[in-house]
Structures
1.
Amino acid sequence: MPSFELGKDPALTDGLYSLLKRRGFFWPSYEIYGGIAGFYDLGPMGSLLRENIEKVWKDIFIVSEDYLLVDCPSITPEIAFRSSGHLEKFSDQLTRCIDCHTPFRADHLLEGYVDAPDLFSPQELETALRENGIKCPSCGSELGPLEEFNLMFRTSIGPGGEKTAYLRPETAQSIFMDFSLLYRMNRERMPFGVAQIGKGFRNEISPRQGILRLREFHMAEGEFFFDPEVPDFPPFERFKDSNVRLIPNNDPSSTKEMTLGDAVERGLICSEVLAYHMGLTRSFACEIGIPIEHMRFRQHLASEMAHYARDCWDLEVELSSGWIEMVGIADRSAYDLNQHSTGSGEEMTAKRLLSEPVQRSVTRIEADLKVLGPIFRGNAGKIARELICMDASGIRSIKDKGEPVIVELPDGSVHKVPTEAVIISEVEEKVSIEKYTPHVVEPSFGIDRLMAAVIEHAYTEMEKSPLKGSDEEEMGPYRVLRFDPRISPIKCGVFPLMNRDGLPEIAKTLLSDLKKIGLITYYDHSGSIGRRYARMDEIGTPFSITIDYESKEDHAATIRSRDTAEQIRVPIIDVPSKVLELMDRYKKE
Amino acid sequence: MPSFELGKDPALTDGLYSLLKRRGFFWPSYEIYGGIAGFYDLGPMGSLLRENIEKVWKDIFIVSEDYLLVDCPSITPEIAFRSSGHLEKFSDQLTRCIDCHTPFRADHLLEGYVDAPDLFSPQELETALRENGIKCPSCGSELGPLEEFNLMFRTSIGPGGEKTAYLRPETAQSIFMDFSLLYRMNRERMPFGVAQIGKGFRNEISPRQGILRLREFHMAEGEFFFDPEVPDFPPFERFKDSNVRLIPNNDPSSTKEMTLGDAVERGLICSEVLAYHMGLTRSFACEIGIPIEHMRFRQHLASEMAHYARDCWDLEVELSSGWIEMVGIADRSAYDLNQHSTGSGEEMTAKRLLSEPVQRSVTRIEADLKVLGPIFRGNAGKIARELICMDASGIRSIKDKGEPVIVELPDGSVHKVPTEAVIISEVEEKVSIEKYTPHVVEPSFGIDRLMAAVIEHAYTEMEKSPLKGSDEEEMGPYRVLRFDPRISPIKCGVFPLMNRDGLPEIAKTLLSDLKKIGLITYYDHSGSIGRRYARMDEIGTPFSITIDYESKEDHAATIRSRDTAEQIRVPIIDVPSKVLELMDRYKKE
């Protein structure tokens, strides 16, 4: 059996592992070929669970917070990662055995010998390996020198093999590259957020933690662009008084409880925008069912901060294997936009209104309508209007080369304007707008890990089946996944008591009515009702609906709730709306 | 401006292209670095449009048809594609200029010279290139010999670079590899379907059709497993009398109109299961708004059939660039399961009940409880029960080697049973169950193409703005995307007539109520109402809601419908439910 760690408590994870695979949550990929570490398949239950978690995320970020959703390719040309710094810096330290050539992550070899080797510099790793006399764990031979191993999967585009590309290690970069387009789409309004949900890829040297560390994983990222010179962020009012548990990096050994407002005031969290996104993250985690007492925010130490981060807080959730990072909320400052702007030569700025106009020397573009008129006729006025809004320094360099200026009109038509129609002058004037490079706060969610956390906190094991007289009793512990109904993969089970006497017909009509309102419903006509309930409890289905002989007389059905085992009798015709009401009520309780 | 072909009608696509990019549907990726053919970014509107199309797909396949949804990695080890045949056969013919070394797809070079060069064999391509005297289109030099170019993106897993892997060219293979697990999860019931929605990757030699041919694309695939010896498929009743337009491969020059039932009876479509999925595909395409008169099904010629296909029909949709394949519905027979079973050594079969039991020699396993008892105590009975259900031939070979038999109990615990506790005997008995390899029908949907088709068929251009007295009139043609409201990226616009006098407060309360029921809503307080309507029409928002001065008195708002421009006055409190009702009514009209 492949190793699987949801958490390290074997009593919890052994039984849970078997349930998760057997019932179709997830399992290691490519098992028929022996499996490959770091890849997992999400089965029928896992796929729906993931979708439901992402749905809650979208309800918060896209629907409520008005983040713009984008969806960009995973395959990314090398030049983008040269700009972003990933080509140079996104790597782990590796050492190979000089005899058997097995590769190892250097910091993994030091676990148990030193504290937090994952924060060591290459020099510190080298020293610690030597001082502790670490040998190859496979064959006992000496280890070779440290190598820098880039964690991006490499491929190439096109038949020549000439265009090197990488699979994105995060979804963020495409958002930065599209910044100017997105800013225009947002009608040049600041601040605004952009979100992306999709796969990330990291070629981990030796992934060992099951679904907690994957080589191909699901992530949801938001990039919130804002003006760094505006310190106040009015929406923060909402979370100002929220109590959180913090581990600031000036005292990493103790957990402090305080409000987000206090943490900003004391300078522990660098800005209201960052703190706001910590609040948002916490309320998302609550909504998917992670108990607040098992959450904390830990600030990255300076040494573990990513190359782009000015400040970073992780939402950690307590699992049986310890506190695990689920979400990183980083202030990336203007780093990425500056890097891509330099790398591509494209300006990536926003505009801000100055509180007081200032005197400045300004390059102004004018259009000579006497030249434009005869050439462009009806379009001349529109072209002139576009022209004077264009970037003056760009136009100047085009004009200097004597090349025509390309103007695109709002109707999509493209026009070449001869250089003599473009007049450039320097004037002193009062300016009330200036350009700046926005800063970015990025909440980055590891969806697979959150799924594992949701499962572990929903999992309950009972020694005996609560179902009296059923044949379940001999099956060992009774297992329930107490998901919030919004998160549950299957919303209802529909069961005719017997598979005859007209009961299946009644049940199937109800089934079809439930499906019509979009509820994923499981139909089951075989085995004892107790066994059918048990099956639903194991996959976390909140409502089981039974059609019995009485249903033929009273046109009603029994709805059993997973968590309370309470049963209510409801007219069949009202069952769909009753289920929606019960789902809604769960949220509020 | 990068070339973009939604279709070839420039009058349609020029204006449409500019709208789609400007309004955030999609645009070529990595534009700031010059772009790379075959990659597109979906912007804020495109991402939501895609999600909504996939939502309709899931409502049909997952909710109604009970397909099991899975979600597996894109990175796939080489061995899987060795089994599936992709390593050997998933390629195009390539030729390079002997001077400038530019690579070309051989069949592309022959377009305009011969008919349907994409169906030519390598020999035929070679001959046609020679006979037509084709030279390098870039420099005029001679072309080199044909090379086979595999279309899968290659990468490697782990630090050694030793484990070659590819990005999946289709999502199907992981479903086949997981067949036995999924069959057990479905409680060994046949037939059943499995679905996957995700990215596919094909390293096209020279992608030239914009979003119609991408190197990284969105797909939704279903794999429907069934018993090939059961000819009837009762659910087919639903589509038996559906009229469809068919181009069968025995007469590829003419379109025939007939019912799906007739087509099966005449042997044009190979099975009811395949025809059922053609019916399902057609009703999906209707639901997302593709007009039925612009759809047809074309059967693959024997020469264009994929290496795994026994029969295949494409749903083609008419765009301004001609008839374009959107969905392929293939009968893959038992090909894939057989290939992976051979490649991995794992049995991949289902069980069928024989109508009459037959006499057969059967290998039977018995457990010696006298041996098991002392070793396993309380578990001995459970282990014995598991043991006799295991695969007899596998157990025999383990026993022959003298190795212990590994038994996993339902609670996840694993036990080593010594060989002497396992008794194997050959007996003659009546058997009423036999194993078989299921066949597969696969409907495979190209989501990006469907999105392009939906957009083109929703697009309407008017010479003049229908909005009287607005400043829109000078803006050139007036454009509307008439999406079905379920598909529309944004469902409502909310507009305070003026940004003062308490109107924004009323509008924002309504905004928040609309968001609470999950409706993506756009708030806009600036510019004339006409301009705000026009913006909503361009992105296909079905309902625009205005709060005016009267709203302060009568607590009502005006809902304007995109398609009819009809305006109704509704109490503000009823607006959310009214919008839902109007969305629902649209579907039925």
2.
Amino acid sequence: MWGGRFDEGPSAIMREINASIPFDKILWREDIEGSRAHVAMLARQRIVSAEDAGTIDRGLQQIAAEYERDGVPEDWDLEDIHMTVEARLTEIVGPVAGRLHTARSRNDQVATDFRMWVRTANRRAIAGIEAVLAALVARAEEHAGTIMPGFTHLQTAQPVTLGHHLLAYFEMLMRDRSRFADALVRMDECPLGSAALAGTGFDLDRDMTAEALGFAQPTRNSLDAVSDRDFALDYLTAASQCSLHLSRLAEEFIIWASQPFGFVKLPDTLSTGSSIMPQKRNPDAAELVRGHAGRVIGCATSLMITMKGLPLAYSKDMQDDKPPVFEAAGLIDLSLAAMAGMVARIFRSAKRTTLPGRP
Amino acid sequence: MWGGRFDEGPSAIMREINASIPFDKILWREDIEGSRAHVAMLARQRIVSAEDAGTIDRGLQQIAAEYERDGVPEDWDLEDIHMTVEARLTEIVGPVAGRLHTARSRNDQVATDFRMWVRTANRRAIAGIEAVLAALVARAEEHAGTIMPGFTHLQTAQPVTLGHHLLAYFEMLMRDRSRFADALVRMDECPLGSAALAGTGFDLDRDMTAEALGFAQPTRNSLDAVSDRDFALDYLTAASQCSLHLSRLAEEFIIWASQPFGFVKLPDTLSTGSSIMPQKRNPDAAELVRGHAGRVIGCATSLMITMKGLPLAYSKDMQDDKPPVFEAAGLIDLSLAAMAGMVARIFRSAKRTTLPGRP
Amino acid sequence: MWGGRFDEGPSAIMREINASIPFDKILWREDIEGSRAHVAMLARQRIVSAEDAGTIDRGLQQIAAEYERDGVPEDWDLEDIHMTVEARLTEIVGPVAGRLHTARSRNDQVATDFRMWVRTANRRAIAGIEAVLAALVARAEEHAGTIMPGFTHLQTAQPVTLGHHLLAYFEMLMRDRSRFADALVRMDECPLGSAALAGTGFDLDRDMTAEALGFAQPTRNSLDAVSDRDFALDYLTAASQCSLHLSRLAEEFIIWASQPFGFVKLPDTLSTGSSIMPQKRNPDAAELVRGHAGRVIGCATSLMITMKGLPLAYSKDMQDDKPPVFEAAGLIDLSLAAMAGMVARIFRSAKRTTLPGRP
Amino acid sequence: MWGGRFDEGPSAIMREINASIPFDKILWREDIEGSRAHVAMLARQRIVSAEDAGTIDRGLQQIAAEYERDGVPEDWDLEDIHMTVEARLTEIVGPVAGRLHTARSRNDQVATDFRMWVRTANRRAIAGIEAVLAALVARAEEHAGTIMPGFTHLQTAQPVTLGHHLLAYFEMLMRDRSRFADALVRMDECPLGSAALAGTGFDLDRDMTAEALGFAQPTRNSLDAVSDRDFALDYLTAASQCSLHLSRLAEEFIIWASQPFGFVKLPDTLSTGSSIMPQKRNPDAAELVRGHAGRVIGCATSLMITMKGLPLAYSKDMQDDKPPVFEAAGLIDLSLAAMAGMVARIFRSAKRTTLPGRP
């Protein structure tokens, strides 16, 4: 079964293991935005002519329109999103495309692109958290007087209100929100201008590109800038802790929806039935949210292991930074959306006075 | 930015979180093979008529041909590969397709499909290991007399031969091979017939389906059969340990290829150069093999966390079993192929007598 | 070999698995400080008499003096540090000791003790980081003009200065410092008064105990307060990222100290020799710092897994929160101390002009 | 707070980070047994005289008696168990003690000691599993006719028998048993004679020491023998999977013991009560078994991370191999003992006919 693979020879394997375009094409918006900021700065600093810069900028805009419409082509020979864009730009504007590479390396380019993507992912997580927070507050107000048994060790302990119980999750998610917010502050520096590892001799205006790309300031140390992935780890650890909180709420929904508990009845939109077992309402969404916590934590573990013991500056191992971040982002976004929906709908049928199973 | 997502409403989110077809469509061969074995058994046991079974089997063969040619369609409303196949079968053969579902549940179906896929992945890993073993032995024989410094703590300690050094990896990979082989023995039981969780009242011949699908015997306990993912964890832990060994060899290649060491010169097929720094030969493939170890271990961690504390029998969390296995399989297969290529080529330029840097 | 264990019967096993005193006795200072603050508040609120409170307080002070002098006794029948202190207090002051338990549960007590311990661990980590930062800055100034090869992919790329290289680690550790500082802000709330899970009917002054124990405010939600371990996870993830940075510097020291590189010569205080291989200076301390990263990340993973899917409020699983935190704290403190020492001494022998191996 | 630590100077920190005696003293039996086998072989091969070997052997026996009686002294200056034993031997028998070191290094010595310890831990795990298996079979026979609701998604699905349910865990634990057994086969090779990394010029009889220490054969490759920790990882991954199974059973016991389910009543020996909430029987032991799974998996992750990317042969990072193994062994042993006790007692009160909550 290996014959085919080895028949292709080492070049084919090398090309396959090297290619990041299958996953990093998701960075196309950030890559083009970064390139446009870079070439505008090169023009202002008179490192490239205004005319060349204009040509390049129009080419980049055309590529953005193409990708928006048709998706990003995936050619392993072009390895990654940076070379894919560059190759297309050359097709469109000719050799002047090469000027875009002035005073920039793929090392600072990818560090900038990825940081911008993760910045957006942090903001999206905060928005998702806020949707769950809003749902929690609304339900807590409705159920401020709904008595339910409070548990420790899953043993009924003392009566509490459902509102109070739900607000425990409000506290957890407020801490999650602050973690993503802290991460945004910490990553608010632009790596562009660090080049391969040692900066560049060109007279760049790094404040200009940093500002254009929405960063508070440029990074201070070029070796750090190209080999740092703390921003990705900050995102992954914040997502892990958030997923843990969601897994706890999901566990409660699953237990509460079991027939012996019967605290809540899952709406059809959030559960699946069984034709041969009509008494069942499977809490699929809650179970998937709980399961996703395992994968999000696995993603965080993955990147930590990959970064361990890497000497400065850039090493190719760091290409393995993206799949866990993209995967975790998809999982946490969907988990937050599902949980906001569940919180909003799961207590509709709960009476306002007393839940069954009271102590 | 969440507006769109929530505008779609909870049904859209539910559909998205529930859909496994984006990743489990890779199981299409196993799913169709399992269904063909099941329907043949149903016919033999006179649970469905020979004519219906024949109709269903021809339909399944047609679907296999379609998927082979055109790929598997991805419709989230059909959730997973099982329903995707079933829906297409109904289009082709009409209501008789429903007979296929007799005495079978998606729970034992997916357990069987996935187990078959993982069985193949184990065999592929063994084949990949054997390719590296062969390369190691060939190089070790060539370099049985090549003296090099032996290291502890990365300090030169005592002279060894390059052959002896390479055979240390032979030992590691032989142990890896035995782990995958042990896993194959342990998973050699067919879950089909366990149904949702409690078996079925039909008079099935489980030995027949087990044999048809290449298993030594049917599983013994139906609750275990549908909720067990040990076979996936066995694969992931074997892959993790194998990836650790490859990461150690990769680290050595990277250090040996550095200019101060200069023990090996990376062939062009296994490294990349830099136009502005022609002295460099970046050991990209070795770095990616080293980095991949982080992701493979992350995948193992992921599934362990997901399985923790799940009550019997099937829970939907277990849908999160597949992405880490598929990801790890892709990474370990490629890492083994790349490392076989590296071992085969990296010492071509090494002289047969003495490496530089001898003690 | 199991005979003995089972002969003891289930009570013996139960006592052993339940006992946390072997590891939580480290919390004795926090436990006594918390109890003193609690009883002073009870007295001010006239819930216990001033006389009883005085008696209890003197008893607690005596216990503190005893533990300081003789260590904490480890009696498994007393389970944990809270019961150990309480039992000794009863011996000293008699039945009045029971008043200390008014309006308090072990659930809010342990949440408070542990939070205070982790708060101190965060501050200690910051101090340890600052020691490394100071050493980095001092060496960077000395070596602001020392040219060395800059690496990417461990291939010599462009010349940089050693000072610039060291300041890359300054950036990393400044981010680590900010993570521990963020954690301190987030955990700055006192759980006391949350009782078992639902608060208490007594008229407590929670602001008073919060202030006495150095917290900015009391926690808001009682269910969250007793079941939250985010403060421990914040510490562990910050420690993990910090350990990753230290592992990278350690890897560089190990490579630089190898004979082919020869960039640095390890001082005798930071390495060990070999009587039969006198050419070796084993970089033991650097290797242990690199190895410790694995264990610190393992500790973070451990607590994440333990917390996954726990329903509210307190569950006994949460007793497994402490060993990974105590272990990680010991490892990161020692790693920072060792690395501060290494940075301070490792470049003494490096000439101020040019390192060997320049590009 | 760091003053004290730094005042002690780098030597103190170095001594502390280097010292493994606080945890590796647990290896004293294996260390002495290994030394006795080594010196007996040296005498047979006439590398040391019979008289010297006799003197050394008697000294080692005396040390064993001392440690058995008084415990192992913990002197950080003696670093590890090997030097601790050697130093005491020198006190007892004088300079002849040095002969013990002939043709042996701490690298092969610790690899042998640790392998022997892990071998015993594997056997202990198998015995612990067998105790749980016996309890499961006994309960399953008693409850072969006890009807209970079978669950999927924690929704009541179809009736099953309690006996059938319990035998699902029999299957899981039989797989666990086979994993520990496979590990024993794979580790059945003795590293002694590999010396520091390259073997030794002495005419050793490695078969003799291997046999004396209960190994099937000597290891084949000296570089691998001193840098391999697969045997520890095999143990940790087997323990992780076993702990996952126990966590699932523990979760079920916790849910079944909740008041709404009320399937089982926890005996007093396996639960704790609450004076102010007498209705509660907290399932502490089950919760701790569930929680311990997190720590066992954390230990496996820890050692995987530590081993990643280590060049051959021995590196000091590998000193971090022992704490996670010792911790996991304590946790899995206790979890198995507690679960055997729970399974044996938890169903005594369950009637033989029908559990409450039947579908």
